[in-house]
Amino acid sequence: MTKLHFRYGTMNSSKTANLLMTAHNYIAQGRKVLLIKPQCDTRWEDNLIKSRVGCSMETNLILAPEVTNISSFLNDVSCILVDEAQFLSRDNVNMLRGISMTIPVICWGLRTDFTTKLFPGSQRLMEVADSIQEVKTICVGCERKAIVNAKFFRDPEDGSKQVIRELSGGTSTQIELGAEEKYQPMCWQCWQEA
Fold first, then answer.
1. Closest Cα partner for 37 from 54, 14, 57?
2. Are residues 87 and 109 in contact, defined by beta-carbon separation less than 8 angstroms?
3. Catalytic (active site) residue 166
4. In this structure, what DSSP letter does residue 13 have?
5. Which one from 58, 84, 176, 181 is the annotated catalytic residue?
6. What distance in Å separates the CA atoms of residue 113 and residue 187, rounded to the nearest whole number?
7. Which of 10, 19, 64, 190 could bond to 185 as cystine, CB 3.0-4.6 Å?
8. In this predicted model, what pLDDT tens digit does every residue of 144-155 receive, in sequence order?
């Protein structure tokens, strides 16, 4: 039975590594996968889905927010795998919801931003996915489960870090790509105390 799956986790929970392992398993069985990433994911080369552990694969499709039909890419596809699903538009998710009636679709992404608010793509996936699974990791400050994508500002003068908790006048936006230099996974308690 085909489904729409949403697998969410915080930063550094191995979401992309999981996607790449899933793709490898399908390909090793001689099956065709369609690898998708959102247009705004420009951290690596445009055509790559890359994990911080070093493995990568070329994407088959870079999805712009206004795209609502990818039928020309679906020939003989056994599964659709989507990285950075939090950056999908609601229309993108609605399209994938329709496709998942005949082809399995698995999306990996963050659930919330650094202010603990849902991303639009994640919100829509939480609303319509058949299966929602958490990809777990631990807090950088303790041994508890991480649930917050903590964003930091590093003072250029003394190197100290301050947690940023809200969008503010031009200094922070919901979508600001980065890795460990800007974000760390934290539990609620450590995030509140930071």
1. 57
2. yes
3. no
4. S
5. 84
6. 14
7. 10
8. 999 999 988 777
